[in-house]
Amino acid sequence: MGRHKKKNKNEKEEEGESSFNIGLLQETKNSIWGIASIAIAVLATLAFFNKAGSAGEVFNTISNRLFGWGMFLVPVVFIMLGIAFFKSIHRKMYTSAFLGTLLFLLSFLAFFYILGGNADRAMRISQGGYFGIVFGAPHLGAFGFVAALIILIFLIFISVLFALNIPLHSL
Predict the structure, then answer these.
(1) If DSSP codes are grouped into helix, strand and coil, which group holds residue 41?
(2) Start-to-end C-alpha separation, the chain
(3) How far is CA 144 from the centre of its chain?
(4) Which of 157, 153, 37, 162 is nearest to 100 (CA)?
(5) What is the pLDDT of residues 1-45, one digit of tens each?
(6) What is the largest distance, in Å, between two alpha-carbon atoms of the chain?
(7) pLDDT tens for residues 115-154?
(8) Residue 171 and residue 161: Cα distance in Å, rounded?
(9) 3-state secondary structure (DSSP) of residue 15
(10) Where are the alpha helices (DSSP H) in the chain?
């Protein structure tokens, strides 16, 4: 029987072990992330109804500028993220959940931005926010109104599948 070689930091990271480990099971970590996501969704909803104090007012102001009409998607995105964590309770899935929900949010914001039609830039910002411009303007410029809307609708569907890690036939 040979001695076991002690793993260095790089070998641990390659195998998915972190240098900071407090001994929580993956199921526990996913549960914590899921609960935190749902809690943020509840707090965001309270802020929309002016029930979250001065922090809620700041949140509303920032959300309105960044997301435009999509500010009401913030709770939906965090609920979707929470569901993704609860659904994938036994495995590590941070990247797919975060990227999927980010794609969901950006696709919707771009969709709202494009719906502006012939509106001026200020009106489009109020619809899709600044993130809507970043993601929507390139689509609109490259593909035109109808094609950009179709692409974004499909991206919204793809993002839900990606975030929740579910095949189409499971919907």
Answers:
(1) helix
(2) 52
(3) 26
(4) 162
(5) 555 555 555 444 445 555 567 888 888 888 999 999 999 999 999
(6) 76
(7) 877 777 788 888 888 898 899 989 988 999 999 999 999 9
(8) 9
(9) coil
(10) 9-14, 26-48, 53-67, 73-87, 94-114, 121-143, 145-164
